[in-house]
Write a structure and sequence with these properties.
two-stranded antiparallel ribbon; Ribosomal Protein L4, Chain: A; 10 strands; 13 helices; alpha/beta
Amino acid sequence: MAVCRPIVNVFKVDGAPSGMTIKMPAVFSAPLRSDLLNFVHDQMRKNSRQPYAVSAKAGHQTSAESWGTGRAVARIPRVRGGGTHRSGQGAFGNMCRGGHMFAPTKVWRRWHKRINVQQRRYAMCSAIAATGVPALVMARGHRIDRLPEVPLVISDEIESVKKTKEAVKVLKSVKAWSDIQKVYNSQRFRAGRGKMRNRRRIQKRGPIIIFRKDDGITRAFRNIPGVTLINVNVLNLLKLAPGGHMGRLALWSAGAFRQLDKLYGTWKTPSLKKSGFHLPQPKMTNSDLGRLLHCREVTSVLKPRRLHLQRPGPKVKKNPLKNIQALLKLNPFAIGEKNMRIARQRYVEKMKAKKREELKRKAEAISVPPENKAKKVKSEKSVKA
């Protein structure tokens, strides 16, 4: 949303303050929607295009027919006849010399675009509001260092200026001539093929002069390079925001400036000229979000800032068949089952070891010969004696 002052001073054609003030129209506080303005500008420019297409007969003005298969050549249609290099050459195809182009252009292409009325009006409100923001005007390249005010409102005497030398004098008096000098310095030849198409010279844009009644102002200013004149009742987005860039330097007549509230209305009253149109309401009355978040009224009801907050790392999925903690989350009785399996396994191992010992003793008893066994018994008896 553009921030604007409540009143605007009116200057005479000689540059001196007239002592009159005008209330700032509400449209200068409209939201600045550069995205919407760019879209509407792009669609509007398409409405001035002229259809173009190649001839329907192009590439087909010859007699040709395919030779078919069996001749070891491509099946493209070939020119009939003989006695010339042209006979036997390929025809019609877009890969052939003298053939038609791929996807020939047609005049029934959708050249023009329909734009919603509300979108057009919203974009125009944004363009008007941007002319009152000095930062946007300077960012667009206009020389406004010596200008007394932005937007600049001149008394209705400017509408009665009839001579170009008087118009130059007015621009110099209100300190706007430096922007015209910028236009003079930017005049140059166009780069590219446009020089051959009646577009040889190019130059930058100067100020736009918006008036209410034409008493000679158009004839006086029209020969000054870069200057655009337009009636306030028929404002054009293509002239108020050339190239889709908002912030063109605008010089208003007092009558045209007063007309804006009737054309676009205020937030309390609808427009008198445009049926069903209400001035777009900004989503935020104060768009300085950082200042709002750090003001005392907001910070006093918020929790204190948490320092050294450990951010969780990337979540790793753990396998419950290998991780007991993950398994216990799924089955709290898993630890008891695991202990029972361990105890059963130990018991089985103990029984297996006991059985192995018994088998080992039996194997030793079978492997000893009878005589060795008798000697062994005697030796045991002697030891006992």
